[in-house]
Design a protein that fits this description.
Distance between the termini: 42 Å
Radius of gyration: 22 Å
Structural class: alpha/beta
Order of helices and strands: EEEHEHEEHEHHHHHEHEHEEHHHEE
Number of strands: 13
Bound molecules: adenosine-5'-triphosphate, iron/sulfur cluster, magnesium ion
Oligomer: single chain
């Protein structure tokens, strides 16, 4: 029988984090088996996420953020597959529900979602886990009025709660199969009037004006900001414990982005739900998150509290991201490109070195061996996959600038400390490392 891995994370984040994590992700690996070869999209990803916190995942395009979210939700489509790791979710009632049929997946009040059959895991969607996508049309059906779709989500969750083993929803899933299903299954027969009333309440909650009227309109009659609000309402229909928001505001202009982020903050404070927020935008992280994981080439290369990562970054990639934007207060401030290219993630091209070595201004001989995760300064909550957590940069051991060929490392970053621009005046110590 598997058991929950020992975790220093019971104290992660300091005394306020003493409760057991809600989610414990251990060594999660996701692969895509493509014609070009195996893509290692998520690589040995380890994380704890706590009740009621907002955890941010930030990184450049192609670093594996969305695949991580889909892996957590069990929403990968072929040719993608989770090939390793554990995903422990703490919920006493759910553990009791599945214990008899799947004893090997349960340890106390934790369930390893990766050990469950997909039809059982699917029952968690909507009620326990919900997702907001970057593109609202991924989860809103263009041919059904918005209110009716939200009512369906409410109805599905009402039925799922009445019978936790059922998978009766037309809308709790995402993607094409759900869309096709919805076109052949009558809606009105499925939805009770209480669910329609709740849908209007949810639209009001997310700030849609004239909600009773707007509920009858189709998605194409909504503006981008309103669609995003409607999608949030749909995601909240089942009162989920965990909301995964994948770039929830990227397509919107800055004013609407700010409104949607404020809305998420208000809802989070009201409901106490946990949010996993995925973004390119360090300004959004600074504004919303309690803790953050920086992702590069499928790995979390640095994680910690906001203060750990913003004020005392150790990994040169984190330093590069922070140094590349002038103002973290502005939510419009997106990451600037760092010189060099994000690796393809194709297994046969990745090699056994630190994946950032070809772009790193501090690459040394030891970096030719892939770094494990190190605690930073003995901290239980700040960790990084970089030798600089334990070793001082040494020019004597530095790799030649052209060691990896043409990749250009971060300009002068080895010589000058990077000062993350933060209004609270935090300074960095990375140059001493
Ligand atoms: N269906 C797929 N088939 C093959 N490879 C895929 C597929 N989906 C994602 N990948 C690969 O997985 C890696 C991670 O992709 P992912 O979408 O998670 O990146 P991301 O960090 O979310 O990027 P972005 O910020 O652009 O959304 C990329 O190399 C991508 O090419
Ligand atoms: S392990 Fe080495 S190459 Fe990788 S980020 Fe750290 S210093 Fe740079
Ligand atoms: Mg993405």
């Amino acid at each position: 029988m598997p058991s929950i891995p020992d975790s220093r994370a019971n104290t992660e984040g300091g005394c306020e984090m003493i409760q057991k994590p809600l989610l414990r992700v251990r060594d999660l690996e996701t692969r895509f088996f493509t014609e070009e070869g195996q893509v290692n999209a998520v690589e040995k990803l380890t994380l704890d996420i706590h009740d009621g916190e907002v955890f941010g995942i930030v990184g450049e395009s192609g670093s594996g953020k969305s695949v991580t979210a889909r892996s957590v939700l069990g929403l990968l489509e072929s040719p993608g597959r989770v090939t390793g790791g554990e995903l422990w979710y703490r919920d006493e009632t759910f553990a009791d529900t599945v214990r008899a049929d799947h004893p090997d997946a349960v340890d106390g009040d934790y369930v390893d979602l990766e050990s469950l059959p997909s039809n059982v895991r699917r029952t968690l969607r909507g009620t326990h886990f919900s997702m907001i996508f970057q593109d609202p049309m991924s989860s809103l059906n263009p041919s059904i009025p918005v209110g009716e779709q939200i009512a369906e989500a409410v109805e599905a969750q009402r039925r799922a709660r009445a019978n936790p083993r059922s998978v009766a929803s037309r809308t709790q899933g995402y993607g094409l199969s759900q869309y096709l299903m919805s076109t052949v299954m009558g809606s009105r027969k499925y939805v009770k009037s209480e669910s329609l009333e709740r849908a209007v309440e949810l639209l009001e909650l997310v700030g849609i004006p004239d909600a009773p009227l707007r509920a009858k309109e189709y998605p194409h009659e909504y503006s981008g900001g309103m669609l995003q609000r409607a999608m949030i309402a749909q995601a909240l229909a089942g009162e989920p414990k965990v909301l995964i928001a994948d770039e929830p505001t990227t397509a919107l202009d800055v004013t609407i982005q700010a409104q949607i982020l404020d809305l998420l903050t208000e809802l989070q404070e009201e409901t106490g739900m946990t949010i996993l927020l995925i973004t390119h935008n360090l300004g959004v992280v600074a504004r919303m998150c309690d803790r953050v994981g920086v992702m590069y080439a499928g790995e979390i290369v640095e994680r910690g509290t906001l203060a750990d990562v913003f004020d005392d970054p150790v990994h040169p990639y984190t330093q590069g991201l922070l140094g590349s934007i002038p103002d973290l207060e502005g939510i419009g401030a997106r990451l600037q490109p760092i010189p060099g290219n994000v690796p393809s993630l194709l297994d046969h091209e990745m090699g056994g070195r630190c994946y950032f070595a070809d772009r790193c201004p501090k690459a040394m001989e030891e970096c030719l061996e892939h770094p494990p995760e190190f605690d930073v300064d003995g901290s239980s909550h700040h960790a990084t996959r970089c030798y600089l957590a334990e070793t001082t940069y040494s020019e004597a051991r530095a790799l030649d600038a052209d060691y990896f060929g043409s990749a250009e490392p971060l300009e002068d970053a080895a010589d000058e400390p990077v000062e993350p621009a933060r209004s609270d005046g935090g300074n960095t110590e990375e140059d001493s490392r």
